[in-house]
Design goal:
Blueprint lengths: L1 H31 L17 E7 L6 H9 L8 E7 L6 H6 L6 E5 L6 H9 L6 E5 L4 E2 L3 H7 L6 E11 L10 H18 L9 E5 L13 H11 L3 E13 L4 H21 L6 H38 L6 H15 L9 H25 L19
Helix pairs in contact: 1-6, 1-9, 8-11, 9-11, 10-11
Length: about 400
């Protein structure tokens, strides 16, 4: 009986994890041989009016550089609107934004801390553009990136367009090991999804959507960028990843900060998926429902699946009076603990940093599930402070 249970746990646990990270992309590659949704990027005869949306909380260290990059972009100045939403910032963010008023930058200050989504919902009422461009203050985009995103909307079936994120670190900066590889993998999967149908979630750092998309209906405690692709699908539109529109995203300088970000992001993601759970119905939403379940739900179940498989392995070994698994488990635990307590200003050995990154992801997943199931939502949080995004040379 114990052997059968152990085998069942191993097969199911490993099956979920392997499908989420290997099986799903392989199926997308196979489907891509038969199904191709071309994405044409052509300059329009007249560039549409766009509205930049920048939510900010205490971003005095980065907001000026962010506005300078937008103003330096090659998008026609008379066809853009720039609005910064200050979530009741307590530093010099508002004063810096006001200094750009003569260059067309508008400021909306929230009367009290309400969270990123609430700030975005408030900014939405001021937007005049046909296309809404969302950008974070900490990222760096190339001068042509906005035009490339906007060109995607020349395809009438596109409702949202997302950047290709590149994880970067400044020379000599200590960052979380493994983050860059994971971002690269995620962008690869989005490329496959775009070729077959469309992505299931856009990049929160830099994306655009049609102004007609009813994103203002997103509840304040949910994730607006995740909801964008689902709201677009409700309107009969698809969301795409634009490879040429590159967004450089700084890596987290601390494993503990990255852990808190993962817990927050996954908790909000789970709640957002639950809010739009009817989109998982394949009889109504077809291919998108399968992709949503595979990319999001199975990904959030993958790490718990590995733990289930580990429990099955332990049960199997205990039954045969073998504790050989205890040594590698203890080694992983020690490496993860070393990485967790490693000083932030010092670079940890790669094996320590990578192990801690993976283990913290497993723990973050369980904590996120626990909070989501308990309904512990907090629309207001302290943003993860990252370094500057430096494009690779």
């Amino acid at each position: 009986m114990t052997q059968s249970l152990a085998l069942w746990l191993i097969v199911v646990g490993l099956g979920v994890a392997l499908y989420a990270y290997l099986g799903y992309p392989l199926l997308l590659k196979v489907l891509g041989l038969f199904i191709r949704r071309p994405l044409r990027l052509e300059e329009p005869a007249e560039w549409p009016l766009i509205s930049y949306m920048l939510p900010a909380y205490n971003e005095e260290a980065s907001i000026a550089a962010a506005l300078d990059r937008i103003l330096a972009s090659d998008y026609p100045a008379d066809r853009r609107q720039i609005v910064v939403g200050s979530d009741a910032s307590t530093d010099g963010t508002d004063e810096i934004v006001r200094s750009y008023a003569d260059r067309g930058v508008e400021l909306l200050r929230m009367p009290e801390r309400s969270g990123k989504t609430a700030t975005e919902n408030a900014i939405r009422s001021l937007m005049r553009g046909e296309i809404i461009v969302h950008v974070d203050a900490a990222v760096q985009i190339s001068p042509s990136a906005t035009k490339l995103l906007v060109m995607a909307f020349g395809n009438p079936e596109v409702g949202a367009a997302s950047s290709r994120d590149v994880s970067t670190a400044s020379p000599g900066e200590t960052t979380v090991s493994g983050e860059g590889s994971y971002v690269g993998y995620e962008m690869w999967v989005r490329r496959l999804e775009t070729r077959v149908y469309g992505i299931t979630g856009v990049s929160g750092s830099f994306f655009a959507n049609r102004g007609s998309l009813p994103l203002a209906l997103t509840p304040n405690a949910l994730s607006r960028d995740f909801a964008a692709a689902m709201v677009a699908r409700r309107q009969g539109l698809r969301s795409v990843s634009v490879d040429q529109a590159i967004c450089y995203v700084p890596r987290s300088p601390s494993l503990r900060r990255e852990y808190r970000r993962k817990v927050r992001t996954m908790t909000r993601g789970l709640e957002t998926l639950w809010f739009h759970r009817d989109l998982l119905n394949p009889f109504r939403y077809g291919l998108f429902a399968w992709m949503l379940a595979s990319h999001k739900l199975s990904r959030w179940l993958a790490l718990p699946g590995l733990l289930v498989a580990a429990v099955g392995w332990i049960l199997r070994d205990l039954n045969s009076h073998s504790l050989l698994l205890a040594t590698p488990v203890a080694a992983v635990a020690l490496l993860a603990a070393a990485g967790w307590f490693w000083p932030e200003h010092r670079r940890a050995p790669r094996v320590v940093a990578f192990t801690a990154f993976v283990v913290s992801g497993v723990v973050a997943t369980f904590v996120a599930w626990y909070r989501a199931l308990r309904g512990e939502l907090d629309p207001v949080w302290e943003p993860t402070r990252r370094g500057s995004a430096t494009p690779p040379r």
